[in-house]
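Appendix B, Record 12. Input sequence as logged:
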Amino acid sequence: MKKGTARPETRLTHVGRAPKQQYGAVNPPVVRASTVVFDTVAEFERIKDHRLEEGRYGYGRSGTITTASLERLASDLEGAADSFLVSSGLAAITTALMALLKAGDHLLIVDCAYVPTRIFTETLLRSYGVEVEFVPSNSGAEIAERFRDNTRAIFLESPGSLTFEMQDLRVIAAAAKANGIRTLMDNTWASPLGCRPLSLGIDISIHAATKHFVGHSDAMLGLICCNAETVPLVHRTVRALGHAAGSEEAYLGQRGARTLAVRLERASQSALRICRWLSARPEVARVLYPPLPEDPGHALWKRDFSGACGLFAVVLADEITKPQAVAMLEGYDLFSIGASWGGYESLVRIEAPKRTVEPWQGKGQIVRYSIGLEDCDDLLADLEAGFARLR
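Logged structural output:
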């Protein structure tokens, strides 16, 4: 069977590595390089301005075979024409936006977007002369009513990583294409195994590879996966901004990615079981997780997604105060308090959603959980003990 015709889990294991070209080593080597030398002036002049030609780079900032390993894997999984590895998820988001926008342009962005994304658009992007307009987090066909003559891009995050609203990706992408507008989506939650936005008409799929790709909470990385039309724009911007992912981080990213399928399967299975358990608890007013049939975004998730992950949130009952919620979190044995998600360990944090066009309606405290690879029964026991502290 050819790698290109294999199922995603198989390609995840094989794409981006070539043991026969690496003295038989299974994993791509860690190449640390800044200066790259050439035999002739002609060869140098031919390659120096190219990102990759015949397996060679012109300068370390443009990448190495270590970074190329993860970029090729991401492109294969996403169905992208090319992918670009940068130093963090936020760097991937800001670079992709800057690639598509200039002074005088108009950006539409969903109101549930990752807070650092909001901060960038509301501060630096606006200071550069870009008009930024937030739209409802569950946007669909009605988003076309916001289009202007100068609308150039729509930034989506489905589901939102704090409150998990879903957007109608197919409808938005089609409307945008018909009006010459580019679409970008933060696809970190689902990973390419759970959603392939480019196949739905989205132009750029973005990942905080720090999370699912790395998978072990020990490296920062971002990925920008582009269709053919946006590759030159993103490539130019990556080069102009001087982005360069570290070789050690790139190695950890591609190594972690090899186990992505089994980690996601375990985490999402545990998360669904835990969410169903939480839904029956009197201390919980609502569980925010699109794979649940009762979730408002479930139909869109079921239509466009083939998988999930271990990240979800709960809205606690109105009468539970923040000090009570804090005591519950601080007493956990297995859930650590911290940012990020997608690692092997379970995490928890209290959230305070920021909104511009649609104030968050819930009154209860929002607690976000990232389910790791621990035994599910042990995690449930830790959660039960936390509720006992509330009582």
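The chain has 13 helices and twelve strands.
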